[in-house]
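User: Could you check the structure of this?
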Amino acid sequence: MPELRKDLVTHKWVITGTKTEEEFMQTLAPQEEVSNGMCFFCEGNEGKTLPEIYSLRKYDTKPNTKGWQVRVVPSKSAVFKIEGPEGKIGHGIYDLMNNIGAHELIIESPRHIKNISELPIEDIVRVLKVYQSRINDLANDDRLRYVLIFKNQRPKSPYRYGHTHSQLAALPLIPKTVKEELISARDYFSYKERCLYCDVIRQEQKDKSRIVEENSDYISFVPFAAGFPFEIQILPKSHNADYRRESESSLKNFAQILKLSLNKISVALNDPPLNYVLHTIPYLRPVLGYWETIQKDFHWHLEIKPQIIEITGFELGSGFHIQPILPEICAKILREAK
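Assistant: Sure, the predicted structure tokens are below.
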């Protein structure tokens, strides 16, 4: 039975038990990449996925049929389940809980396209609006604390579908990485009475050397201490903690800078595998004093991490990242990519 288990030393939660022994051993066997004709995500193959949860489609079409523009379905390999109680319990000195949550696939186009950056701006805006809709809908489940939107684009896997899609994980707790960002932002605001991320934007605009692209609403840049070569962060220039509050006109500029940033990575690095993650505020469930300044101190953002180097034992053992090329050089290469 799948469980969430807490590491006593690092305080990280680990999801375990999502596969049986037999299922896991089957994943180690060689697999063939799914061809275009067999892609479960292409229009016309709706019956090959689980029934859709949500979709944007033509007004005269029915769920699980052709005519959709963006389609959301449960993951067949979901690591979270929506049914049941949280069930947080102790096991001796250890803590564990049921893997309550949701795991959804957001299929971004009915056409067989590998990269979201290949879509027109208006299609990307639809995807970004679906992100908002799903986060809003899942807010109605009081057991959930956080929704993480992420993409594994062309992952290093012999059985990838090669059809552009994002994933959504709704969790019964706040991920440690996000919690560390929230604490840093809160502490910075407590000391300086300013948003940490707004100060980062001002510094990047002053230095200019790490900026990749900028428009009226957003800035795309290589972080000063990037942990991965050619890592990019995209932030709204206007302070906003909650991604759900972005207007459609703002999302259009977000789509524009996201498309451009991903295109530059593709051109400069020969279309590498990459991940992106969207960090927004948690659901503001009542916790005494915990959310006192979060609307002022946090700032939603998107992180893009190309996977072009391997993680070694040093990184795993020390927590340090070795980033072989200066962020300023990474930004220069990306700015010049056409």
